[in-house]
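MODEL INPUT / OUTPUT PAIR
PAIR INDEX: 1
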Amino acid sequence: MNLLFLANELGLDEPEYKELLELFIETTENDTAKLREGIKNNDPEMAEKAAHSIKGSSGNLGLTGIYEISSRLVEKAHAGELGGLDHEMKGLVERLEDVGTLLRNGKV
């Protein structure tokens, strides 16, 4: 993942994009917790709302891997299909961790 390339594609400079990514990580941690809670409590509405938030913000930042996973989660939650989402959640968390690692290592 080349975050500097993504920043340039969005017309942002490096510090601006880094700041947006830091905010994204913070917000997405809360949304991920709500998504897990919605899945655990079999609450499709809560899960869909949280996944939709992640989908929108990741799409705006050009984070296509996170966007694609959260899109699938939105679809599943909208259909009330909350079982068997462990693989999707694992992928989502891994990609979020990748972004966080890149930020911590100054690779933006």
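PAIR INDEX: 2
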Amino acid sequence: MPRIIIKNKNIKSTVRVPYDARELSNDNSMKKEIVFPLIVGLIFGVLVMIFWQFTVRLNVQNARLAQLEQLTTKNTQSVNDIIAFINQATAQGTGTETPVTE
């Protein structure tokens, strides 16, 4: 800590620089009791956000999968109808039944 020494016979003690004159007290600094819960709270908050993001993405994928299943069911029914129509048309025209399989 720098100190300024004044050579005057009337002043017996050394004069401190203004920023050195005040001492840091425990009231102004963060106490150790607050740091640990703060760190634990931050880590917990980050974990909650990660799992929340994962849940949102999982729900979006579930919705897409449900739509894909509906489209697959609809298209399968359409293909089955077309195959049945072709089977009926070929059976009536030739007189023999040769079913077309999928």
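PAIR 2 NOTE: The chain has a mean pLDDT of 79.
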